[in-house]
TrEMBL record:
Residue ranges of every copy of the AAA+ ATPase domain listed in the record: 49-193
Residue numbers of the full-length protein present here: 57 to 330 of 499
Provenance organism: Cohnella hashimotonis
Keyword Lipid metabolism: no
The name this protein goes by in its record: AAA family ATPase
Keywords on record: ATP-binding, Hydrolase, Membrane, Nucleotide-binding, Protease, Transmembrane, Transmembrane helix
Main location: membrane
Signal peptide coordinates: none
Annotated localization: Membrane
Record-stated family: In the C-terminal section; belongs to the peptidase M41 family. Belongs to the AAA ATPase family.
Amino acid sequence: GAVRKGPSRPPAYLTFEDIGGQEQAKRELVEALDFLVQRERIAKLGIRPLKGILLTGPPGTGKTLLAKAAAKHTNSAFVAASGSEFVEMYVGVGAGRIRDIFRQARTLAAKQKRDSAIIFIDEIDAIGGKRDGSQNKEYDQTLNQLLTEMDGIQGDESVRVLIIAATNRKELLDNALTRPGRFDRHIQVDMPDRHGREHILRLHARNKPLAEEVSLDKVAEETFGFSGAQLESVMNEAAIYAMREESEVLRPAHLAQAIDKVMMGERMDRETTS
Ligand code: ATP
């Protein structure tokens, strides 16, 4: 059959156009980022600088992609860490790492001659879970250091720092983190709907030759409940099936097999963790 081919390579820099679906999250994020872009006007009006944005939603829905696109959109330096990296046995290590990452973000921005930096912290609940008095001291120190760093952010520094954090479970976060002046912007990142799924599939098909009979619209319909990460897997697995059959194009059967495989993998994950 004829081959439909997209551009041969995904773009080197991630932008909002490279994220499928999530229209509302993107809109809300761009609106919030305006605070970084329009910093002079914001300062003139005496509006307090935006310091933290919290992205909430299930795994694999594109929270990391959104943070990266935010950096691109605002021409900011980008530094990323995962909350679980800060959880250490020794007192003071986690707090020291928080200090380092803020320093690193400012240094990188200066080196890249940018006037803003975005720090992305995935799994923020690992450091910012509710304090009930039973946790160890280390954990408290790490969270306290993060709060101190955030409180120390000024609107008029040569490098403006913005923290974007992600969590699957917003309800577990300590109230100290979500107070005004900290993570006071919350953006929900949901599982994609059918339209969103088709968009995501299209993006991940950009570098793959599809047989003419393939209908991504139909694939989107058949992948109800799949996350963006799972849809990426579907496209990748389909390409692997095509390769095994020495086919130069991805055919509908390859996609059907890939959907089954990803669905099966998901079920096995659930069974082994529950
Ligand atoms: P986690 O909570 O598990 O860290 P996440 O929400 O940060 O997940 P990402 O790391 O952004 O998810 O997504 C994982 C991968 O899944 C991406 O690298 C991308 O390939 C794919 N993906 C997820 N969502 C989308 C989307 N909306 N558009 C395009 N690709 C997506």
